[in-house]
């Protein structure tokens, strides 16, 4: 009986020690890794001429991902350029037309100066001088009127060409948008189109995310909440195998200001009625972290600065 009682006491002690060690090793919080996912959509309509992207592929910022057919846009641009050329060819040759009147004006000015000299020598009458001066004035007014008329004509034609130039700029923008590039460095998570399919503006073509820094979304209790701060460093533990974990250094980048009920997916049934606060922790990714992976958080190893 004494021997049996000793065995029972030994088992109880082992359970107690295991429970104590389990509480000591328990994380302060747990959560799931997320990443900012971006859906890349087509911005123009047409057939997909080139689309060589696969799921899981790493892409660089501004890397070409797809090309949509641009033949109709190019033809429309050529048509508009031809229309602009036809309009501008109607512009008058201002320099040539003005040059003729300017030459007449210079001749009239030379004649007026000659008559002035003759008049000073009493070799010309006042009427001759008046006629010569009047001829200069008339030609000057004709030159001014011609310049104004030609200026209005040129301005009108350039005004007719301006809307066509704006349409070309719009086509150039559509041509640029027909070449779909990566807005950032990241990983292709999913593709929604295939080469030679016809697409339309707004139709999703692929889903990508920047995986260089992952976000662990965890939940803390009301007792933990007051001690947390933005920029605080914490230790994030990710399962390496069934018996070990890999530590990462994370930084708290967001703390919810509102309490919410405990998410059902990560807590026991008895704890679902508890109020918790969501926390986002940025964790640099060494390539092992994936979207949907679980991670544990220890605030005990936080930065004290």
Structural class: alpha+beta
Order the strands across the largest sheet as they lie in space: 1-10-14-12-11-15
Helix content: 25-40%
Question: Low-confidence stretches at least 5 residues in length (pLDDT < 50)?
Answer: 1-22, 301-305
Number of domains: 3
Approximately how much beta-strand content do the residues carry? 25-35%
Q: Topology as H/E string? A: HEEEEEHHHEEEEEEEEEE
What overall form do the CA principal axes indicate? elongated
Helical element count? Answer: 4
Strand elements, count: 15
Radius of gyration: 41 Å
Average pLDDT metric? 85
Distance between the termini: 59 Å
Largest sheet: 6 strands, antiparallel, barrel
